[in-house]
Amino acid sequence: MLTEREAQGYYEANDASHSFEHVLRVLALAERIAQAEGADVDVVRTAALLHDIGRGEEARTGVCHAEAGARQARDILKDGPADFVEAVAEAIACHRFRRPDRRPQTPEARVLYDADKLDAIGAIGVARAYAVAGRRGQRLYSPLHSADTDDLSQAVVGESEAHTPVQEYLFKLRHLKDRLFTETGRALAADRHAFMVAFFDRLEAEVRGEQ
Length: 211
What we know:
Blueprint: H1 4-8, H2 20-37, H3 41-50, H4 55-61, H5 65-76, H6 82-93, H7 107-118, H8 122-136, H9 165-171, H10 183-207
Helix pairs in contact: 2-3, 2-7, 3-6, 3-7, 4-5, 5-6, 6-7, 7-10, 8-10
């Protein structure tokens, strides 16, 4: 069984938003959801520990980090039972929001997807959005109405300097609670979503000098 210490070594080059701290938060959520939903906790735990190991390859080559991570996980776990290894790889391959063509089909994949998305909303989600913005040199703010759209294909602009955390919220983050797969995940998302909405509403009011 892969240990946390072993997994940590795969994340030394990751940015703050996708660091091993993110992995540990996803792990805690994934174990909680797996236990409530009756998923295989061992598969979920291992997939959570390895789910973002493909980030470095994506940064270097542009390949989808979920696909790269699944491939790397198969290599790391190659001495384990074949069905276990494949279950882990499948969960990792399907955890990315921007890959609607790879929707999670197994209970374990759905658990990992939900846990990863829960870490993108709420207080920690806001913090991560601003960590990414700082790393990419993005502006602090844009008006809430400036990118008010339900077209999730527009989320790709999050890679540009013109993007802002407000636009990330409008394009992606506010939609996440409605795109989770497990009952437990959706229940956990409700409070986090409410906090995030209140934060961006307050940000708008403060920028306008209303509060």
